[in-house]
């Protein structure tokens, strides 16, 4: 299950810092589309936030990559493709019956 708010932040081109739990870990690639820290490790969370706060270029790079990843995975075109594939699958099954 994925977090709608995480998808929205990424789609807006914002860098994200997330805990390493199912859903988050499937959406965010550490150091590529955001930063991931271990749950229950507040020092790691603080470190990730400080690293982003201090580095505008890193924020921009991670945010741009997050936006692209969100659009490629959850954008309107991708959703339409998945829905169309689902309906084709259903129709093909009915034709065989």
Commentary on this structure:
The chain has 97 residues and is mostly helical. Helix content is 67%, strand content 6%. It is built from 5 helices and 2 strands. It has helices at residues 4-11, 24-27, 42-54, 56-74, 76-96; strands spanning 17-19, 35-37. A two-stranded parallel ribbon has the order 1-2. Strand 1, helix 2 (24-27) and strand 2 (35-37) form a beta-alpha-beta unit. Helix 1 (4-11) packs across helix 4 (56-74) and helix 4 runs parallel beside helix 5. The longest helix is centred in the C-terminal third of the chain and has 21 residues, at 76-96. The model has no long low-confidence stretch (mean pLDDT 91).
Keywords:
97 residues; two-stranded parallel sheet
Quick summary of this structure?
The chain is mostly helical.
